[in-house]
Amino acid sequence: IVGFPGETEEQFQETLSLMREVKFDSVNTAAYSPRPNTPAADWTNQCSEEDKQSRLRRINDLNAEHASERRARMMGRTVEVLVEERNVKVPTQVMGRTTHG
User: What is the pTM of this model?
Assistant: First the structure.
């Protein structure tokens, strides 16, 4: 979650730095939005919508860059895959795992 109340640009940059170091295989991202009856919804140090959307875009852009790098590493390779499920929307696609990152 980006843009949690009180999050500074410096803290967000630390998140990006960690992502650059780890290069996660997958991330789920969202911009913080206040929810009724939650303590953070009443905090006075809310991040602006502009900052939240900018941070979300930047974190998603970095994730897309890392995904592209992962795909490029696999181009032209033949590896063994454990197929785990079929894509219900596109039946010709399957999802699986390999030990060859």
Answer: 0.80
